[in-house]
Amino acid sequence: MAIETLYDKDGSLNALQGKTVAVIGYGSQGHAHAQNLRDSGVNVIVANRKESANGKLAIEHGFDPKPVADAVKQADVLILTLPDEVQPDLYKKDIEPNLTPGMVLGFTHGFNIHFKTITPPQDVDVIMVAPKGPGHTVRTEFERGGGVPCLLAVHQDASGKAADIAMAWAIGVGGGRSGILKTTFKDECETDLFGEQAVLCGGLSELIKKGFETLTEAGYPPELAYFEVAHELKLIIDLIVRGGLNYMRYSISNTAEFGDYHTGPKIVTDDTKKAMQQVLKDIQDGKFANRFREDYQDGFKWFKDQRETDHNHPVEKVGKELRAMMPWIKPVDVDKL
Ligand SMILES: NC(=O)C1=CN([C@@H]2O[C@H](COP(=O)(O)OP(=O)(O)OC[C@H]3O[C@@H](n4cnc5c(N)ncnc54)[C@H](OP(=O)(O)O)[C@@H]3O)[C@@H](O)[C@H]2O)C=CC1
Ligand SMILES: CC(=O)[C@](C)(O)C(=O)O
Ligand SMILES: [Mg+2]
Ligand SMILES: [Mg+2]
């Protein structure tokens, strides 16, 4: 079913003029929304712990990070860019008590509204602008004159202006340059969880790790394996981003294209698609959300164990060494962030 796609010409920043927007959480998404909106002429304040790396970065970027409750008291529009697992408790403690009629509660992912772990009062607007890209690229694309496509949704329209405010927000962060899709909190939440688990992050990480392990366990050098199954991915993805699978296949050799069709379905099989359908079902029925919350209540023990194991995967070690030899890609050592 076709979806309405909007661009800069379909809206304006007017609905945010004269308003104070508080970005709550200066992390991956928050630092981008705060700076992009400020660059777009919006009055932005930031809430974050001053002493953390993100708090210090906010100060470096010219903001004065405030405690959450203080920022809420000074704002007309709130943009919650806190971790999904943190939002419910912080909402109860610092946000809900300071909400006043006519305020706007904005999210960048529908998780807590969709799974009803946050239920706002009826007299505020509840909107979402969810970029279809990592927060750091929301900033870098904006800086280079582009923009990351965004999903836009209105969950509650107490003011009658919720859609205009959401559009001004989406335009202000650069979404109107590449496309703003009008959707619902439910569809954004379920498709985003599915995409990040089955394809973008979960599926892709396992493909890289198992491809690397297959080659190195067969005796090929780790450097060769890294370049083959990890580094070259961006070059392939860039072709797909510019011209779809067809352009990627146009650009690669006949040998590779033949192998693409010949072997692809053996790796990502019909059983893989059945597993994807089960993943989607577990998302839709809340099973994943419950698992995520349970582990959070348990101090994210399982999550931290997984993170530690993969942090030390051999592909990460050899990759760090090889990336350090390529200064033009601006290599990042996550251990130094
Ligand atoms: N990461 C991404 O690319 C995307 C994220 N989203 C959504 O954006 C939202 C934010 O995610 P993301 O940007 O990844 O989050 P991050 O983990 O990158 O940043 C979270 C920020 O919240 C702050 N924070 C955490 N706890 C508290 C607290 N108790 N009091 C004050 N500040 C706190 C952190 O500050 P401190 O540094 O002090 O801990 C940090 O600056 C989520 O809803 C996510 O689903 C949507 C699309 C993509
Ligand atoms: C970057 C993004 O879109 C994700 C994967 O959904 C996220 O970080 O939550
Ligand atoms: Mg996403
Ligand atoms: Mg996500």
TrEMBL record:
Which protein is depicted? Ketol-acid reductoisomerase (NADP(+))
Report the EC code(s) recorded for this entry.
1.1.1.86
Q: Which residues form the KARI C-terminal knotted domain?
A: 184-329
Q: Its family?
A: Belongs to the ketol-acid reductoisomerase family.
Give the originating organism. Natronomicrosphaera hydrolytica
Gene3D superfamilies tied to this protein: 6.10.240.10, NAD(P)-binding Rossmann-like Domain (3.40.50.720)
Organism domain of life: Bacteria
Pfam families, sorted: KARI_C (PF01450), KARI_N (PF07991)
> What function does the entry list?
Involved in the biosynthesis of branched-chain amino acids (BCAA). Catalyzes an alkyl-migration followed by a ketol-acid reduction of (S)-2-acetolactate (S2AL) to yield (R)-2,3-dihydroxy-isovalerate. In the isomerase reaction, S2AL is rearranged via a Mg-dependent methyl migration to produce 3-hydroxy-3-methyl-2-ketobutyrate (HMKB). In the reductase reaction, this 2-ketoacid undergoes a metal-dependent reduction by NADPH to yield (R)-2,3-dihydroxy-isovalerate.
